[in-house]
Amino acid sequence: MNLYPLKFDPILKSIIWGGADICKFKGIEPQLDGIGESWEVSSVEGNISVVDSGALKGKNLQELIAEYKDRIVGKHNFEKFGTTFPLLIKFIDARDNLSIQVHPDDVLGMQRHNSFGKTEMWYVINAAPGAFLYSGFAKQLTPDEYVKSIEENTFVDYLAKHDVKKGDSFFLPAGRVHAIGAGTFIAEIQQTSNITYRIYDYNRKDANGNGRELHTELAKDAIDYKLYDSYKLNYSHKENESVQLESCQYFTTNLLELDKPQSFDHSAKDSFIIYICMDGACEIEDSSKTKIDVKQGTTVLIPAANTGNITITPKGSVQLLETFA
C-alpha cells in the first residue's frame, strides 16, 4: 500500500514531578495535571507508538517496520536496527527538579544491558523565570572524588548550571552528567534506550522516609569527567532556511522557522524524517503528494519512501524541529 505521513497516539506519563503544560501544549482535552512526559515516537518495549489515523490506524511502529522495512526507516537503519525504531522523541515538563543522571555509551550499554547507550539532545520549548538545567562539569573531579562528593553531599557543586530560556538547545552525548530543573519544558531527541543511572536526588524522601535508589558505582564508569568549553548549542535564527542544531552519528536535528512555503529534498538521506511542531501551524506534503495538517505539539513521521520532496506550507508562521537518523 501507499505509505503516508504518520502521527501516533501520545504515550502520556503521569509522574510525581510532572507539570500542567504538556496537555495544554498539545491541545489534549481534558487537560491533565502531573503529566511529566509525552512519548511521541517510541519503540521502547512496553511503550510502542500506535498510529492514530489513516489506513494504518491501530498498527504499532514495530509492526510497520516489520511489514514495510526500509520503506519506513531507510536501508541503513533497517540493516542496523531491524524492527526497532532508532530514535525516541519526547516532550518533558518538569515542575520539580529531576534527579541528576548519566547514560552509558553503546559499548557499556551492550556489556551491561545488551542495549544501545543513550545520546540525546534537548530543545527548550518554554522556561519559567529562574529555570535552569545541569549539563556537564564546571570543576574538574576524578572518579574517586566523584564517589566522595556523593557521600559528602557536594556533587552539585561540581556541575555546570545553565539558566535557560525558550529556544536554548543542549547536546548530551552518552557520559555527560545532566538534569532538568524545575520550570523547564523541553523536546528531547534520543537514541532508543531506556537505561539511566541515577547519581543524585537531592536527598529527597518518599512518604515512608525512603530515598530513591542511586547507581553510584554503575555511573562511575559511565561518566565523562572532561571539562568542555561549552555545553550549549550555538546557532543563529534564519527565517525560511534549515538551521542545523546538532549532527552526530545517531541523529541530525535542524530548526525550521518558516513564514512562506519551502520545499526540501531528502531522498539522498536514506532515512525517515520526523517533524516536531514547536509553534504555529502548517501543511506538510510528502513526495507522494499526501498532505497532513500540523499544529503546535504535533509530531509527524515521514516514511523514508516518501521523503523525495517535502513541501511545508506555513499557516501564518511555523517553527519545527526536523530530525533524522
Automatic annotation (TrEMBL):
Task: Give the active-site positions.
Answer: 198
Q: Which InterPro entries match?
A: Carb_Metab_Reg_Kinase/Isom, Man6P_isomerase_Firm_short, MPI_cupin_dom, PMI_typeI_cat, RmlC-like_jellyroll, RmlC_Cupin_sf
Please give one Pfam family short name.
MPI_cupin_dom
Which cofactors, by name? Zn(2+)
Per UniProt, residues of the Phosphomannose isomerase type I catalytic domain are 8-114
Cofactor mode of binding and number, as noted? Binds 1 zinc ion per subunit.
> Which biological processes are named by the entry's GO terms?
carbohydrate metabolic process
Q: Which GO terms describe its molecular function?
A: mannose-6-phosphate isomerase activity; zinc ion binding
* Keywords for this protein: Isomerase, Metal-binding, Zinc
Residues where Zn(2+) binds: 103, 120, 178
On whether Transport is a keyword of this UniProt record, the answer is no
The Mannose-6-phosphate isomerase cupin domain covers which part of the protein? 246-317
Protein name from the UniProt record: Phosphohexomutase
Instruction: Specify the species.
Output: Dysgonomonas macrotermitis
Q: What is the lineage of its organism?
A: Bacteria, Pseudomonadati, Bacteroidota, Bacteroidia, Bacteroidales
